[in-house]
Amino acid sequence: MPVIQTQLRPPVVKDRFVRRAKLHKKLSSMTHYPLVLLHSGAGYGKSTALTLFIQDSGLQACWYSISSNDDDLGPFLTKLIHAIRIQHADFGEAILQELETIQQYVQDQEIWSLVSMMVNEIEQLENELYVVLDDFHHIEHSLPIEQWMIHFMEHIPENCHVVISSRNRPHWNVLTSLKVKGNLLEISQEDVTFSQEEMEHLLIDLYEFDLSDSALEKLHQLTEGWAIAFEMVIQQLQAGIDVESVVQNRTNTLQDLFDYLALEVLSKQSLMVQQFLMQTSILEVLSPKLCDYVLGMTGSGSMLEQLADQQLFLQRVSEDHYRYHALFKAFLENRMKKEQPKEYQQLHQKAARYHEQNGDMETALSHLANMGDHGRLSQLLQEFGQEMLKNGKLQSLYDRLIAIPSQEKRHFPILWYYQGEILRYWSSYKEAESCYDRAESIAHDRDDAYLVSLSLEGKAQIYLDTIQPDQAERILQKAIDIREKTNATKEEMARLYHRLAENLLNAGNAVKAEAWFERAKELKLPLLDGNLEARLYLRTGRLEQAEKVLLERKKAQPFDESQHLPQSFRETDILLSIISSFMGKSDESKKYAEQGIHQGIQVQSPFVEACGWMRIGHAVQLINRYEPHLAEKCYQTSLEMMEKMNVSRGKAEPYMGLSVLYGVQGEYEKAMAAGEKGLHETEQVKDLWLSSLIQLCMGITALYCKKYEEANSVFMTVEQQMGHCGDEYGIMLTSFWKAYAARETEEEEVFEREMRAFLQRIQTGGYEFFLKERTTFGPMDVQNIIPLLFKAQKLKIHEPFVSKMIHELGYDEMKNHPGYTLRIQTLGQLKVWLGNQLVEEKDWQRGKAKELFEFFVTKRHQQVSKEEIYQALWPDQDESGANRSFKVALNALLKTLEPGRKARAESFFIKKDGQTYGLNPQAGYELDIASFEEWIEAGLEEKDANRSKDLLERGLKRYEGNYLEDRRLADWCLNERERVQVLFLRGAEKLAQVSVRLQDFDTCIQWCEAILRIDRSWEEAYRLMMYSYYQKNNRPQAIKWYQKCYRVLEDELGVEPMKPTKEMFEIIKSDKGVEVFA
């Protein structure tokens, strides 16, 4: 990649540049900050101020003047490394080598890798590193660069200092964190704007103008301290124009003022100089050689040097390279275009030819676009467009293409193909297909068989991207037939054969697809990837192999050459998410889905983003801490996005997710309706595999709603279809559900047959996770499987394996299992669920049965003697009476918790050990207070503020009220209630404190109020509230909370607030700055 050395040097400064003491002092402190952010509009002297400071201070800074052509991560990092090499000659060789392997879109993993490499190499430098990124606004729209910068600033080495100079302030969340920690020096437009006092010093003390205070005030009002306008005013005054004449210009805006002043500057020059200025204004960077070529003259070098010396807004960027000030360039170029349109065109044409001859195609394209030479622009894009596609310059290429009239594209039909490719990558499938159609039509008229096949391939790729195999097959076969007659290369043919194999997979013909794939590997054909091998494994039930292939790619080569452009549903993280859901790895599935959503946004592919939303819906269904409506919302988001893209086929999977979601909730009609909608999409495109999964969900729904005959009929169909697809995982699922249904209907022979088949496939397929984790198509409560295992053990079905599984699940000492998880909510009113069924108040049969259960939950860490139970629950009865009451309550409790337990059989949830009783710790019950404690304690120990906030919020949301509120008068739960309440208060206090550190003052106030509702005398909460309101510029409210604190502490404890609280009150009263103390 070519590196223009002039970009790596600060502009040359002249003695005329004035040092501004206040600004210079602020810049002098940059050595104490990891990040310095200098932002203001054009013409405020940012580059000049930085250059003067570096020159005067002798700072060994690495300078990088960014151009608009650097808006991809590759060019940006390459030039950044070369800038650092000015001071450290061997820096960044490994990073440059890594960049060479990246040809198209850069993905998250690669960005992280490049950040890590940069951070690690900088840390190895012996000296402090200072890097200036000038004109950063040219690349602020680049998402990969933004992500790289954000990650780099989050992990910036201690010996590194970055200075960003830009017209705009970046919208990065990391800036808040840096500022709170005192790691950001921000210099705004206000800092670089000239004050009236500074203007007076320059005009009177340095330039020795004799000006009155009134004249100075008028000049300051006119220019508003804008450096470039002020400099032009000085030139006017030096030319002998009096102040009154200058200020008589009645402009409405500063831009109008600049144009007026620029015209005044231009009019004072000779005609030759005026012409040179206007003609060369079409150039981004000027050099004597370039100017001589474009203007058809000699001696441009001396002219450039003369103009630079005359201070005519021409900046020397190196010994023989110059650049106009952006505002002055725009003024000159607009004037040239208006007054000399013919010459303007000719100059751009010459400049384009010069850059084309020197291999700078992008600059050549820019000149051709500016002059409107659509013919030559089309010709160059025809030659250069494929390379721009490969390099991921989609937006730049698209902007060029849409500027070319359709009539011109008839002469260059491949441009329609390029436009279709870009739109396809952006998920604009309808518009993309229209472009492919136009390319095909013109190519057909011109007998261009290759372009016809290329256009057909593009259209087929749309149907591959959206999994519509029936439509894709017809178009692909046509493309292959045509291309085989064009003497296409081996690589060209292999690409089409690869797409054909993928389409076979999409249609459910995985065996044929895999046979082709293996044959292609044997013949060493050059293959596209698109994660086809992993998808083959997924659709044939080899989940661990699929996961292994994808994880190895993420680790060794996160995204190879074929994946840097959007890959639709084939994105590695999108695939890993659904595989993780199928394997019961719910948290990992959610993580991958979130990464997929982020990647979709990053590469501007709404289809990828929509796939991420449906996959996150699958994940949160499996995570108990999320409410079902969240999964429903994720699916609806995906459906809405597919509707906007007009990709009806993409709705099938979210409908499948909704079907299984409604099904496990017992909503038969809604589940079946969602399933039918999904089937409508898959059957239209003949995707047998996904159709089978949707039907499986409908069968599970029928089973949960006790429609056993309907469920078994569906399972039989699904089993046959999965056999055709070659999906062993799908066949295993049908065997399980048929065995489950047989146990429910007491069909012993069917149970034995299907359970045997199920357990065999569990072993041969490596699906043991199905017995241990909740999975997408497994039972909603994994405990449902345990009774089936006990029955299989009794029937000696795969006995060694079943015994091993029962042991690993921790039930080898149990004789029975109810087949569901006991879920207990104690924070607030007691709620108990048997699996997914809520225990109603009437189900307790006796009030004392419920109280006995609450007692056992409170004493859950121990076995309790009968005597202790009598004393706690029946203190007024004698031993004999208490014993009778206990037996009645215990019997009622056992019937409530285990309604299907056989008479005199041991209880699963209540353990009896001699004369002691208690909750069975091996029963695997879920208790809200346990997860509450886990999250709060983790949040209290966590050092990272963001991570701590997340943990604490998760825990505190569980606190729906005091522990066992209906037993607030019972002595036996008093200690536990107080312990839990104190833990809540500590967690809420810590959350309020970290919220202050993160400058999230509203969250701080919310949790402080929650603290004070429980404990009115919690002084830290008052202090945090005072600080938060003060930071929100609400001093009256801050003072009000201090006064309330004072009254409460005096009334309830008879004490005054502590010294830190009083000191904060005094600071707030006097309105002095308050430091973050959390």
From TrEMBL:
Top-rank lineage group of the source organism: Bacteria
Matching InterPro entries: AfsR-DnrI-RedD_regulator, BTAD, NPHP3-like_N, P-loop_NTPase, Sig_transdc_resp-reg_C-effctor, TPR-like_helical_dom_sf, TPR_rpt, WH-like_DNA-bd_sf
Limits of the Bacterial transcriptional activator domain: 927-1069
A GO molecular-function annotation: DNA binding
Keywords in alphabetical order: Repeat, Transcription, Transcription regulation
Transcription recorded as keyword: yes
SMART domains with a match to the protein in the record: BTAD, TPR
Residues spanning the membrane: none
GO terms (BP aspect): regulation of DNA-templated transcription
PANTHER family found in the cross-reference section: TRANSCRIPTIONAL ACTIVATOR DOMAIN (PTHR35807:SF2), TRANSCRIPTIONAL REGULATOR REDD-RELATED (PTHR35807)
Protein name as catalogued: Transcriptional regulator
Organism encoding this protein: Pontibacillus marinus BH030004 = DSM 16465
